[in-house]
Every structure is written in C-alpha cells, then in structure tokens.
Amino acid sequence: MTANEVRKKYLDFFKNPPRNHREIAPSPLVLENDPTTLFTSSGMQPLVPYLMGEPHPSKSKRLVNSQPSIRLQDIEEVGDNRHTTFFEMLGNWSLGDYFKKEQLAWIYEFFTKELVIDKDRLWISVFEGTSDVSKDTESFEIWKSLGIPEEKIIFYGAKKNWWSMTGTPEEMNIGHIGGPDSEIFYDFDPNGELKIHEKSIDKARPCHPNCECGRFLEIGNSVFIQYKKVGENKLEELPQKNVDFGGGLERTTAAVNNTPDIFLIDIFENVIKDICEKASYEYSQDQGKDRSVRIIADHLRAAIMLIRDGVTPSNKQQGYVLRRLVRRAEYYRQNLFLTAGEIQFSSLVKGFIKSYPELKTEWRKISAILDEEYIRFDLALQNGKKKLLKAIENRNVNGRLAFDLYQTDGFPLELTLDILEKEGKIFSDKDRKEFETEFAKHKQLSRTASAGIFKGGLADHSEEVVRLHTATHLLLASLRKVLGEHVVQKGQNITKERARFDFPNPEKLTNEELQRVEETINDVIKKDLQVKFKVMPKEDALKTGAIHAFNEKYADTVKVYYVGNSPEDAFSKEFCGGPHVRNTSEIGRAKIKKQEKIGSGLVRIYLVIE
C-alpha cells in the first residue's frame, strides 16, 4: 500500500458517517508572520486556540487533515530506520465533542479494518498517573474491551504519556492545558524470529514498546486534553474536553507494509534506488552506508519541501536550517564516494514526483537552488579545512573548535575526525566530551527555540519578549503612518533586551521622523488600548486590511491581532500567531535605540523598552 493510499483512506474514514469530520486545509511549513515557531511541527499547532474553547471558523467540532511538518530535533537522529526531518502528520480532533471511548474505538477500527493491520501486532501505552493526576484506567479498560490483551497495555509515567506545551503536570505553567495520552505501537518481531532487539545496542536492557531497539514503532498517539493548571500542583478538569490524534503517515505506511525501515516505503523508493545505483551499492548490506543513503534521501526531501514553500538558503532562521540540511546531505553524498558528476540533485528531486505530483512544475527551480547551494558548500568546506589545518599547525585543536566548524562551516564531526586522522592527530576523549557538551547546548536550543510546539521564533515567551513583540506591531503601524504604506516587515528578531525590525525605505529616517515614530508608539501605549485577536477565514482577514506578507503562503484560517476597540478602527492589525500583551499600558515606554542601513533600500531599527 502506498503512502498516498494510506492518506486517502485515513481522511475518508474520518470524513464518512458516523464520524463526520470536516477536512481542513493543512498549514504551510513556514508561517512568516507567526513569530512563535520556525516551522509547523504538528497538525495540532495551528489549532491550539480552538482546543482552548474558541469556535472553529468551519463551525465543526470534528476536524481532520494531513499536515506536512518539520521537527528539527530529529535531524541528528536521522540515519536510523525510523526518523525523518520532514513528515506528514495524520490528525483528527474533537473540540469538546467525542472523547476517549469514541476516539480509541475509531482509531483501532481504522488500523485493523481499513488498513488491515494484524491486531496481534499492536501494543498500547497509557498514563500511569502522578500524585496530582489520577491513573488513566478509563483508556486501559476501553483498550481491553476492544480486544487488546492486558499484558500488551503498558502504563508509563508523565515523561512518556502526558502532553502539554511545557511538559509534565509539574512542569506546566499556570493557565496551560494538557492531558494524558495513549500511544499505539506496531510490533515488527512478535515472535522474536528476527531478533531485532538482540541485535541492537539496547540488547542488555528489557525490551518494551518505548524501547529504541527498532522492534516497536509508534504509529499513533491520542491525546486527551482534559485539564488546566490553576495553581501550584493543582489541575482542574476542563469544561471542554478535547481529543488530539497524531499519526505519522510514513510510519503508518511502514507498518501497513510490515517493513521496519521507513525508507523502504514507496515515497523513498526511486530516490534510494538512484543513490545506490550511482554508488554501486546494494541497500541493506552495510549499516554505515545505509545511514548515509537515508540521510541524503531524508534531508533532500525536507529541503525540497522547504524550497517549495518559499524558503531559500541563508544564514538566518528557516534559511539556515535549509542550508544545513543541504550541506549535510552533500557531505554524506561525498561519504559514499559520489562526485558531483556521478549524481545530480536534480535527478533526486524527480524521484519524489511520483509521491508528490505538485513537484512536476517546481523541480527545475528547486534543482537549481540545490545545485547552487552545493557550490557554496564546496567553498565553505575549503574555508573550514583551512581553519582546521591552521589550528593543527598552532596545536589548537579541541572540542570547541570542532563544534565551531560544525556550526559555522557546516562541518560534520566525522569530517573533522577524517582530516585529523590524515594529519596524524588525535581527537582525545576530553575533546570529544567538550564537543558533545557544546552540541548538547545547541541541540537543546533547537528543541526549545525552534522545534517544539510554540517554543521558537521568539527568544522565549517571557514578559519582556511579549511586550517587545506587541511594541513591534506598534512600530510597524507608526512607521507606515510617518513614512507611508510602502513600509512592511522584511525581517524581525526579538530577545529580552531588544527588538530588531527590518523594513524597506530608500534612506535612513531623519531625526525628526525617528522622533515622530517614537512619539506615535508611546502615545498609543498611553491610551491603554486593548490588544485582541480574531480568528477568521483568510479571505475575510484580507478584506479587513490587516497587514500581511504579500508573497507568503497562509493557512485558510488565520489569526488577526489588532490594537484598539475593534478591527475596523484599530491602530494596528496584522496577521500574527501571538503572543501579545492584553493592554498597551503593559508595554512600558518604547525607545528607538538606533537605526542602520543594511542593504539596498533596507533599514533596520532597534527598539527597547525602558
């Protein structure tokens, strides 16, 4: 069964009676005017307001879609047989409608009847409870009634089977919502004949559904959002209990076809074949080479999807991630002893057209961007090698240098080690530990600042950052009032200390213009205006005159934040994901610290709160 067939079966199953879900359009991978995240990382991400009680514009309380997603925390794990950077998340939601009994029965029916997955290969996890939240015996009993043997229903703690935007019940912020979840795992080796666990690095530990040995693959997770944190160690039941289901399309397709390696499903079939033919290598014969093949295929697919959604390689934000993906794929291509003449990225792009027909009209443009980035990476490699050789000459090689080469020049650690070995130099255990320490910090930043749900884009969601975010909306509106409507946002970065805002203008502002802009911002702040948002269909939002990026793709439903009594008479209104202050008086006094010209027709302003 192909991935496209699995997707269609899922959407049809939940749209048909008696489930009667409304299919909603997926969001773009990049929401340019949503500073809370670099990428869409789940289908649930754009739906949080409705899970908290706002009515969905579709008027339906039952929703379903397949959401293209990217999760950066998986980049370094790619290379095994089950992790990917880009994936599609099959999702269905109940916004205060059905709950555990219906959800678990329906998803079990979908897997066992629609996809004809052997029920004897399914294992289940449920929440074991904490001192503050009771054990989820309800889900346990439902699974038993559906025919899952008791010994295949495993209880796990909050680290595994609890969802909230900020972690376990103890870690949740007051006011945040969350709840227990129940995962479904597919068992690739139910009788132990393949000895998957025994051959893994985890063989000394007991095997269980959440084991990393590769025997089990999570194919779906039903989250029951039923609690709100109202105080320290105190949660209350929500009046609206929600369901949020997510299941990876690629993983589900692998389970349907009983292949532990998701890179053997149809999506990757042509690309894997092309890479291996050019490398004169037969897939599945060598773990090291398999890893290289998977990384190339995965990173290129993710890069293709980002370029398709308008991202171009750069040293900032989404562009930096794209550049890193392409360069990492190129390094592993070289690791397979492939020269540029032996395989072109363009041929790999065409290998994905069967699964993504929309690429037919895009592949030439995408290929050109990928090939240009290859040339840039070759230059970066030469520069990086010079730095490393100079450090060797000066006896200044250490873990920090290796990490700087990784972060700045795109040098995988393996390349640094290769060069050191050729030069007869040793990378000590101390050096490796130093590299791993720096890398762990970097990875944690990726998790919390760019990959997690609503945990990126802004430096954080502290009071200072939120105040500056709202002040930046006032800055844009004030610039348009003083300079004209040609002013739009071309770039933005907000930390606790300052907001940085880029916009088009022929020259820097005069002192008088700067003063007028600053006074306009502070006049609005003093008026104690409310800051609100409305969720509406994109077409209706455009009619309000809300500021938005004209070359940006938006979901069919958007948030419009406005400053004032109503969108009609608002001082500022923009497409935005938030968060913002509730009243302008919360901001404090805004001060323009400096401005600078950063390119042809672009000006940058730095704004602080005093």
TrEMBL record:
Gene3D superfamilies, A to Z: 3.30.54.20, Bira Bifunctional Protein, Domain 2 (3.30.930.10), Threonyl-trna Synthetase, Chain A, domain 2 (3.30.980.10)
Domain of life: Bacteria
UniProt keyword ATP-binding, yes or no: yes
SUPFAM superfamilies: Class II aaRS and biotin synthetases, Putative anticodon-binding domain of alanyl-tRNA synthetase (AlaRS), ThrRS/AlaRS common domain
Enzyme Commission (EC) number: 6.1.1.7
Keyword tRNA-binding recorded: yes
Matches recorded under Pfam families: tRNA-synt_2c, tRNA_SAD
PROSITE patterns, A to Z: AA_TRNA_LIGASE_II_ALA
Gene Ontology biological process terms, A to Z: alanyl-tRNA aminoacylation
Secretion signal span: none
Record's GO cellular component terms: cytoplasm
Alanyl-transfer RNA synthetases family profile domain sequence ranges: 1-610
Matches recorded under CDD domains: AlaRS_core (cd00673)
A GO term for molecular function: alanine-tRNA ligase activity
UniProt KW keywords: Aminoacyl-tRNA synthetase, ATP-binding, Ligase, Nucleotide-binding, Protein biosynthesis, RNA-binding, tRNA-binding
InterPro entries, alphabetized: aa-tRNA-synth_II/BPL/LPL, Ala-tRNA-lgiase_IIc, Ala-tRNA-ligase_IIc_anticod-bd, Ala-tRNA-synth_IIc_core, Ala-tRNA-synth_IIc_N, Ala-tRNA_ligase, Thr/Ala-tRNA-synth_IIc_edit, tRNA_SAD
Family note: Belongs to the class-II aminoacyl-tRNA synthetase family.
Name of the protein in its database record: alanine--tRNA ligase
Organism: Candidatus Woesebacteria bacterium RBG_16_34_12
